[in-house]
Amino acid sequence: TTSEDFQNWSKQELVFHADQTDQENGFERLRKLIADPAYLKIVHNRPEEWRTDIYNFPVFPYEDLYLALPVMHHWSGKHVPMYENVDSRKSVELASSRDLRTWHRVANRAPFLEHSPVGDGSAYDTGQIVTTNGPVVRNNELWFYYVGLRHRCISIEDTLNRKYLDSSAVCMARLRMDGFVSLKGGVEWGSVLTKPVNVTGDQLHINTDSWRGRVLVEMLDADTMQPVPGFGKDECIPTIVNGIDETVRWKGSEDLTSLQGKTVRLRFHLWQAEMYAFWFGE
Q: Which residues pair with 146 in a beta bridge?
């Protein structure tokens, strides 16, 4: 539901929900957590009660779109004796939208943030995690603050031993700028072609981790799909660096001034490299 004055609101619309694929993913994640002794043991485990729903759905603007951190709530079994709540585990995924209504699941619904293993007992996010609505940009990184709890549910014995004391904390996960998803090139060259884009600056910038490999870029005429003279693959100087803001350069071309205002398509060639973002700028 939306409003322009916080007094008059539109009719409620369903824009995001857990579907059958989420149920299947939840089953698989619970199976792995239960089978792995490194993770906190689930207290109430009844496979006939397993299900997945959306616990919360934090949304935040990022560049020219909206990103969301849907917290997937994987039920493992209801609490006894009143059955008023459930034991569970959570995983945080990514979704994107340009209008806040149509949402796209990112990276085939791969987990973006999950529970930590118990380890030496110092971690707090072993039993439950709940995210906040977006990161803080600091030191050229994205800092995600979230609530971590050492238990989602504890046994009567642990309750009597006061295991619930010192049970929660504010945690932080750090990510490189634009580091949500990357295009990754392996031991053989791979390429990806963009949709038509307008050249709006005199430099092409990329966020890449290619210090062990290479990134090459060629400009293609959007209509003919032929390389723009002077901006082909063979003229591109390889980008070999790990940096969040690197300028792509071509031999014999100082900048993209001659292409400003034109519509092109970019073909990125990656070898043992990851690319997170590209944009035109100064």
A: 131, 171
CA gap 9, 3 in Å, rounded: 5
pTM of the model: 0.88
Instruction: List, for residues 138-166, the tens digit of each pLDDT value.
Output: 999 999 999 999 998 887 788 888 888 88
Helix (H) or strand (E) holding 262: none
Beta strand segments in the chain, E: 51-56, 59-62, 65-68, 71-78, 86-92, 95-97, 104-105, 128-131, 136-138, 141-149, 168-176, 183-185, 190-193, 197-198, 203-209, 214-221, 236-237, 242-250, 263-271, 273-281
For residue 90, which of 62, 49, 64, 128 has the smallest C-alpha distance? Answer: 128
Q: In whole angstroms, give the CA distance from residue 277 to residue 249.
A: 16
Spatial contact of 208 and 274, defined as CB atoms under 8 Å apart: yes
CB 42 within 8 A of CB 115: no
